[in-house]
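Regression test case RT-17, inverse folding.

Input:
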């Protein structure tokens, strides 16, 4: 296990970039939503994707889960798929989804125009067998493993199942991004996914000023959260699956400087992502 040093980013929580030329028609988030994101460190957008769009994504999910691929990472105990990664390079539906304007345009509003696709995955958390995600900040991995200088990446989720309080939702410490980057420990044993985790003493301290919330909602709900938000999720002992699509977009100016991890964990392609048309999932023209 490795221990990282505490990085000193007292004001490292995401703030909305000023002076980014964004066209009127690309303004997906209202000022209120942007303020909510800045204050809480996350934003929930109910019903961002329709039932038909979710069904299309779920069919693609079934195709990639069936593959024998190194990007399909299995649960330690049961061997069922926990996370399937590198999805936009494995299936055309995901190649379009990572350029979907309902994901890319809000991300550009928050983090600036020139973003690259850093990571594309589905965390499935299968009924009965889905194991926990320990308390962490995404930035620890992005910095320690990939050498991203600053906590500027955004994690954009789409619920592919109804996510309830019972089937392993994400838990957020609301506003915890204001602590900046905190000391973490590299945990390679608790689950099949090595993770830089926040120690219990720090979690206890954060809990004194930040309340816990669970991110729940119907399939099609979207979530956006920043790199320093402290989050985790419990095991799914319920009889219902919980699948969530996750796209991480990062500014080109904050790109990786290390290539220790496989490409499917942090993609090397530094092309700026360009949004497609809004109906790109159901009526693709390319
Ligand atoms: O899928 C989960 O429950 C946790 C995922 C997560 O922590 C992440 O995407 O950073």
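Golden output:
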């Amino acid at each position: 296990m490795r221990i990282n040093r505490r990085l000193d980013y007292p004001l490292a929580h995401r703030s909305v970039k000023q002076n980014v030329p964004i066209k009127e028609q690309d303004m997906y988030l209202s000022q209120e939503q942007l303020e909510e994101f800045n204050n809480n460190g996350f934003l929930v957008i109910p019903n961002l994707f329709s039932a038909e769009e979710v069904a299309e994504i779920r069919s693609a999910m079934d195709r990639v889960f069936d593959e024998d691929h190194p990007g399909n990472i299995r649960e330690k105990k049961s061997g069922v798929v926990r996370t399937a990664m590198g999805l936009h390079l494995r299936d055309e539906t995901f190649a379009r989804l990572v350029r979907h304007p309902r994901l890319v345009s809000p991300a550009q509003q928050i983090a600036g125009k020139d973003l690259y696709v850093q990571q594309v995955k589905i965390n499935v958390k299968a009924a009965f067998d889905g194991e926990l995600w320990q308390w962490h900040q995404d930035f620890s991995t992005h910095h320690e493993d990939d050498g991203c200088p600053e906590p500027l990446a955004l994690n954009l989720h789409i619920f592919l199942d109804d996510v309830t309080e019972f089937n392993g939702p994400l838990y957020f410490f609301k506003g915890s991004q204001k602590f900046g980057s905190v000391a973490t420990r590299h945990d390679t044993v608790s689950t099949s996914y090595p993770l830089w985790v926040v120690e219990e003493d720090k979690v206890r301290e954060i809990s004194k000023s930040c309340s816990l919330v669970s991110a729940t909602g119907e399939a099609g709900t979207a979530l956006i959260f920043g790199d320093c938000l402290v989050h985790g999720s419990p095991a799914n002992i319920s009889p219902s699956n919980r699948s969530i699509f996750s796209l991480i977009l990062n500014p080109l100016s904050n790109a990786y400087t290390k290539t220790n991890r496989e490409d499917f964990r942090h993609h090397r392609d530094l092309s700026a992502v360009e949004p497609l048309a809004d109906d790109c999932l159901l009526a693709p023209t390319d």
